[in-house]
Amino acid sequence: MSTAPGPRYAAALPATWLAARMAVDPAYIDAMRRAGELLAVREPGWSEWRYPAWQFDHGTPRTSIARIVAIARSRGIDEAKLYAVLTGPLGLRNNDRSLVDLLHEGRDDEVVAAVRAAG
């Protein structure tokens, strides 16, 4: 299977790049994904997990990501749906803003509540 990004997640980072940037082994990045410390997505039929850059703040995972992933997993929300929930527009009144925008503003509790409601 190919490891090239598909169109949906083309802006997400491959584990090898991320591992080099963080100066860790790629297996450590995968362990963080499996432990729910990072969100990773992959196109159907593709083998490589990709990591959205917005979940990092100055090269380290945002502390809220583990909470968000845990809530999603407890609600049966898979990675692709969680990515869609976090990156989709909030509504007509929000000028195409997303939950990711709220993360960048430090409004983590609102994001957690929205993910909880999405399940």
Task: Considering the chains and any ligands shown, give keywords for the structure.
two-stranded antiparallel sheet, mainly alpha, 119 residues, 6 helices
Task: Give an overview of the whole structure.
The chain has 119 residues and is mostly helical. Helices cover 46% and strands 7% of the residues. It has 6 helices and 4 strands. A hairpin with a 2-residue loop joins β3 (56-57) and β4. The longest helix has 12 residues, at 63-74. The model has no long low-confidence stretch (mean pLDDT 89).
Taken in chain order, the helices and strands follow as EHHEEEHHHH
Largest sheet: 2 strands, antiparallel
- Calculate the terminal CA-CA distance, rounded to whole Å: 31 Å
Give the uncertain stretches in residue-range form: none
Broad shape: globular
What is the number of helices?
Answer: 6
Helix content: 40-55%
Order of adjacent strands in the largest pleated sheet: 1-2
Number of extended strands: 4
Compute the CA-based radius of gyration. 14 Å
Instruction: Assess the beta-strand content as a share of residues.
Output: 5-15%
Secondary structure category: mainly alpha
Question: What is the averaged pLDDT score?
Answer: 89
